[in-house]
Amino acid sequence: MKTKITxxxxxxxxxITATAQIDRSVQPKPGPAPSITLEVPGEFELKNGxxxxxxxxxxxxxxxxxxxxxxxxxxxxxxxxxxSMLGALLGNGTTSISKDQFNEEIDFLGARLSFGSSNAYASxxxxxxxxxxxxxxxxxxxxxxxEEEFQKEKDKMIENIKSSDxxxxxxxxxxxxxxSYGKKHPYGEFVTEETINNITLDNVRAFYQKYFNPNNxxxxxxxxxxxxxxxxxxxKYFKNWxxxxxxxxxxxxxxxNVPSTQINFVDMPNAVQSNISLTNNVDLKMxxxxxxxxxxxxxxxxxxxxxxxxxNLREEHGYTYGARSSVGTSRYGASRFTAGAAVRNMVTDxxxxxxxxxxxxxxxxxxxAQELKNAKSKYVGDFVLxxxxxxxxxxxxxxxxxNNLPKDFYKTYLEKINAVTAEDVNxxxxxxFKPENARIxxxxxxxxxxxxxxxTGLPIKYFDTYANPVEKPVFSKPIPEGVTAQSVxxxxxxAIGGKSNLDAVKTVLxxxxxxxxxxxxxxxxxxxxxxxxxxxxxxxxxxxxGTIMKQKWNGTTGYAEQQGMKRPLTEDQIAEKxxxxxxxxxxxxxxxxxxxxxxxxINGKDHYKVKVTLGEDNVYRFYDVExxxxxxxxxxxxxxxxxxxxxxxxxxxxxxxxxxxxYGQTVVTGPQxxxxxxxxxxxxxxxxxxxxx
Length: 693
Description:
Strand content: 25-35%
Number of helices: 19
Largest sheet: 13 strands, antiparallel
């Protein structure tokens, strides 16, 4: 199959911005320290336990309602995902209003209403405030749990799990929390296809009855409202919310930190970069005396663009787009310090060494007066800016209650930030940043990075993508006698239908859905080929927006068009397109430029690794030893002095006119993942020469 049908999709949402020129050599003079005056919300409580906080703000005719149910974390065990299922089903109608009617009314009011398993949020114009509050209460108290919606959400969750199994970042998050906290801890357990299949609608109902109740609930009301009116309305609509049975949750302790620094490695053969996360558990609460000092220490280490980590890994060495650190807080003694980045495969070991270097630096060397001043200024600015939002006042009031904070916590916030000293930074860095007891969780392509990681001298333990310990993978196996590059290619051509069937294919039309990381709007793709003349057309459409990107290639020249801007292909791009073998590339290979290198493991299956030289570029193609099918293609380009690697994976082969074609194709380029699921593929119909102009 062709390997570059999504070549321009990787830059689909890049835009060009211009910034004004300013004199950055002159530092602005600091203004006077602001005095903080926080409005105290009005409060009342219902008999069922629901506590209500009201912040009146009449600047705009809008109101918002935030519901929080403050239950302790729980372990869902073999039904992990039941809480997510509850959150997906809530807010989809009530026992008295159908899903369609419910959603139509919300749209008509120009309102927003969303639910989670332990929260809800609604907002609207203040003139509709009572109705949106009524709808929110009705959805919370009288949810419509239908078997049809349950099955839809179940299928959707399983599909998301399958998609995340191809994401390096998703795997890193899952394995990192599982190893840090333990799989039986609420923060460490994860959802799998098996646990989702264990869940029934009755399980969701039971979970709702036990955990979604007003016992520990808070409703925060912010906006153009009157306290007495809110009190009357909340009592009217939430008084029938029945109090649940009190229960005790025994929260187990998280896994202990490791006794010494170690690498925990997960092999992802399709990874184009490594996700690195150095992590150790910490016990930090918002009401701890160290809290403000930890904020400043983390800001200096990896909490901003000018931090130690980012200036080293990004600015000095160019390993990554950004390096960061963070420190979590928890009332339950379970949070983490993390530091890391996503880096190019070839510099994975160097990035580990430099990360350890910067953490050691903040633990052993005093921070400068300027570094300390800059970190404080950032917090002061963010804090003061946040006070412009009335939601901030309400959130602060809720934080005080949930985290057992002193009533003047936010009034004295800046005072405590400004009181942090260089000695405090060093002290808390040594207390909470513990590389000597840290796991360095790395998810990446083992065949590219392990040999250099072993040279760091750090012990390496291996895990699968679900945090189970495994033996060190075998990255290369000997080639059996008699197997050659020619026999692998011949076997592939036979596996997808044979040369005669391939020769009968003149055109191909593929259409389906597209998912791009970070793009919430539904996308569809239409891809067309004219085989003999090596013509290609790619069009991406967005729901409600029409065609947002297209690329045309007529065999001689072409163009790319995005958001109405049409750009002809450059000379280099034209040369590259002409060098490409096109669809069913194996039928056109010059075997003098094809080399069988080894047998490698990809997702537990042996694959022939074949190097194909196209002009000055080397492309690696991987064929399943058992089926003969092409499952993965790797290529790389030099962009502004940096190697950018792309990996295309193929799955779900199905026959079309006697030819096996992959309906599933995923492209990973740098930090971006593009997944295409073709719904329809037509051969020798629906394509004309005009499609490529």
